[in-house]
Design brief:
Length: 51
């Protein structure tokens, strides 16, 4: 599975979540305000840094 697959919201194989921030977020976090349908369609929104 490529990191691009994780960004599409595809399910990750059990036991192999990948190492990209997107795949780790999908595998381990369901934030309280997350809309599951939007997450499945678009993948996670990752903020890498701020100013």
């Amino acid at each position: 599975m490529s990191p691009d697959d994780a960004n599409k919201g595809d399910a990750l194989p059990a036991g192999n979540p990948g190492n990209s921030p997107a795949s780790r977020d999908i595998a381990f976090h369901m934030h309280p305000y997350t809309n599951p349908a939007v997450l499945a369609d678009n993948g996670p929104h990752i903020i890498a840094e701020g100013s």
